[in-house]
Amino acid sequence: MEYIRVTSIDDPLFTKLHNLMKEVFPPEEVLEFSLWKEPLQDPGIRVFVAVHEGEVVGVTEYRYYPDWNIAMTDFTIVGKPGLSLGRFLASKRQEDLQSLARDNGDDLFGMFAEIYDPYRRDDHDFGGVKTMDPFVRREVLSHLGYRRLDIPYVHPSWENDGTAVEGLDLCFLPGNDETGELPAALIVDFLTTYYAVLPNKPQEWLDMIKNLKSRDTVSLLPL
């Protein structure tokens, strides 16, 4: 199994990973092909594929923010069962992030992730890929140590049509298990930076940010 970084939409591996994304994720979660050109060239955005026998069988995209010493897991795709892909991608991602944090002079503080809550919405079939079942993914991420932030969460649709995407939790994997809360200002700074690329923000998202700005901290709850 190879762990290969993709940095251009002209890379044949990118076409394969984008097709895999369209097979797995709902349309509002998939950025249009050409709009990937600049993000892939951004040194802070890390897109890696797992290649097995010449085929892209898994993908993970994540970001590292040196100013806050945090990361964000954009997505992880396990495209085939029976290859230990989840473990492979999580381990390689953690190694890469810890290396980036060490270069920044510290251990990684933690990592955000948006996680579907299938107990609220059960219409995510993820292309019929059983390894991506939201019940399974939620439990796996819980086992990894992710905890959900104590806020009602929405995010802007990646179709940039101004609609709010619901049915998810914003979660955080702390580097230290003793971390029980996060500064609200850190969450606001992160979310406004992360979604700066989408100009059409839904009102629900703006209200959420306004509420966060009125708070000092946000608790981390069990997932």
Radius of gyration: 17 Å
> What share of residues are in beta strands?
25-35%
Number of domains: 1
- Shape descriptor: globular
Q: Name the CATH superfamily classification.
A: Gcn5-related N-acetyltransferase (GNAT)
Number of strands: 11
In the sheet with the most strands, the strands line up as 1-2-3-4-5-9-6-11-10
Uncertain runs are none
H/E topology pattern: EHHEEEHEHEEEEEHHE
Task: Give the helix tally.
Answer: 6
The class by helix and strand makeup works out as alpha+beta
Share of residues in helices: 25-40%
CATH topology-level fold name: Aminopeptidase
Task: Write a brief caption for the model.
The protein is α+β, with helices and mostly antiparallel strands and 223 residues long. The chain is built from six helices and eleven strands. A nine-stranded mixed beta sheet has the order 1-2-3-4-5-9-6-11-10, with helices on both faces.
